[in-house]
């Protein structure tokens, strides 16, 4: 009897270890009716004046004039500003796990490091982490046909754009310096301390454009890869990874600017991401659709203490997906 109990105990421990070492792959498709906070589209502006608002949605400056012109032979139009849901970013533990496609396991036969959490030798209780991430094109307003014949919306359907598993720079700090050599300038106590101001600004509005090396309350933007120096919760780490991946895409010229005076006539190169041009909404594992002070979208860098509470749970709730709302200024009539 004792031997049988010992065998069962060992078998149970082995099964638990295997389960712990092999992350699960779960997810769900985005439901536009229940999983999206549509108030994040607002405010809609005409020139520098709000045209439509809903709740206390935050906004950045818009081109002041309601009239605009584009083209070699100038075409006059109206300057419209709004927040367009156009991208989706997911942060996962298991390589090739497509959370936003219902938990599809896209096994390509190419090995990639799994997510991990590290403890420090000094035993101070702080540990690091590592995650993979994916980017989707998801122009929700276009494929839902919410507004027809509106030239300022990105056309298309859901499409997988970027897999960090196929990026050799995502798991190597030294290789990442190829894209961001300026990171060595900000690896000092003074630059890190300045991020406290970015955290305060992001928690009350938008982060500070001038502190481009800071990710607000999530810490530092560099290195532009999947390594998190301090893992203080899955939501916080996922928010940091999302910022870094988008900053990386801007540096690789795979993501462009769509806002401001320069964006009225189309997208433009923006190799250093303007973090004030984005708001995110958590859509998985628990959609963040509840209004917090009239808002359910968060600018990059905002503290996750309030809006991220209760959004993570074991096994099925340790991967995360964010719908990305980007600021769009457009010359309608061009």
Q: What can you see in these coordinates?
A:
The protein is of the alpha+beta class. The chain has one domain. It is built from 6 helices and 14 strands. The strands form 3 sheets. Strands 1, 2, 3, 4, 9, 10, 12, 13 and 14 form a 9-stranded antiparallel sheet that branches. A hairpin with a 2-residue loop joins strand 1 (44-46) and strand 2 (49-52). The chain is globular and about 60 Å long. The termini are far apart.
Quick structural gist:
The protein is of the alpha+beta class and 334 residues long. The chain contains six helices and 14 strands.
Which sequence of SSEs, written as H and E, runs from N to C? HEEEEEEEEEHEHHEHEEHE
Tell me the total number of β-strands: 14
Q: What would the principal axes of the Cα set say about the shape? A: globular
What structural class do you assign from the helix and strand content? alpha+beta
- What value does the average pLDDT take? 88
Question: How much β-strand is present in the residues?
Answer: 15-25%
Which regions contain 5 or more consecutive residues with pLDDT less than 50?
A: 1-20
Q: State the domain count.
A: 1
Share of helical residues = 10-25%
Write down the Rg.
21 Å
What is the first-to-last residue Cα distance? Answer: 82 Å
Q: What count of helical segments does DSSP give?
A: 6
How would a crystallographer describe the biggest sheet? 9 strands, antiparallel
SSE layout:
Layout: H1 2-21, E1 44-46, E2 49-52, E3 67-70, E4 75-92, E5 97-98, E6 104-105, E7 116-117, E8 129-130, E9 132-137, H2 140-143, E10 159-163, H3 173-176, H4 189-204, E11 227-228, H5 234-251, E12 278-284, E13 298-299, H6 304-307, E14 320-332
Antiparallel strand pairs: 1-2, 1-4, 3-4, 4-9, 4-14, 5-6, 7-8, 8-11, 9-10, 12-13, 12-14
């Amino acid at each position: 009897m004792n031997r049988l109990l010992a065998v069962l105990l060992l078998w149970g421990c082995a099964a638990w270890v295997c389960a712990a070492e092999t992350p699960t792959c779960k997810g769900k498709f985005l439901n536009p009716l229940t999983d999206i906070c549509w108030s994040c589209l607002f405010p809609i502006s005409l020139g520098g004046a709000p045209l439509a608002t809903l709740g206390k949605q935050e906004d950045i400056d818009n081109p002041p004039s309601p009239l605009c012109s584009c083209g070699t032979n100038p075409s006059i139009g109206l300057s419209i500003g709004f927040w367009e849901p156009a991208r989706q970013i997911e942060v996962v533990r298991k390589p090739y796990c497509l959370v936003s496609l219902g938990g599809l396991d896209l096994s390509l036969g190419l090995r990639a490091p799994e997510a991990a959490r590290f403890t420090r030798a000094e035993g101070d209780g702080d540990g690091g982490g590592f995650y993979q991430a994916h980017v989707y094109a998801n122009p929700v307003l276009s494929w839902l046909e919410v507004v027809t014949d509106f030239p300022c919306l990105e056309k298309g359907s859901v499409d997988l754009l970027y897999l960090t598993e196929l990026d050799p720079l995502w798991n190597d700090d030294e290789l990442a310096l190829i894209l961001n050599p300026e990171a060595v300038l900000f690896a000092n106590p003074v630059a890190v301390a300045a991020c406290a101001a970015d955290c305060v600004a992001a928690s009350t509005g938008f982060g500070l454009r001038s502190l481009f090396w800071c990710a607000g309350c999530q810490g530092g933007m560099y290195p532009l890869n999947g390594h998190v120096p301090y893992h203080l919760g899955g939501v916080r780490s996922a928010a940091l990874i999302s910022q870094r991946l988008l900053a990386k895409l801007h540096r690789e010229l795979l993501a462009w600017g769509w806002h401001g005076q320069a964006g009225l006539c189309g997208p433009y190169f923006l190799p250093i991401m303007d973090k004030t041009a984005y708001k995110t909404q958590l859509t998985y594992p628990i959609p963040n659709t509840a209004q917090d002070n009239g808002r359910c979208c968060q600018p990059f860098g905002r503290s996750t203490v309030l809006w991220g509470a209760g959004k993570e749970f074991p096994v099925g709730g340790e991967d995360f997906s964010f719908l990305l709302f980007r600021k769009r200024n457009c010359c309608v009539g061009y």
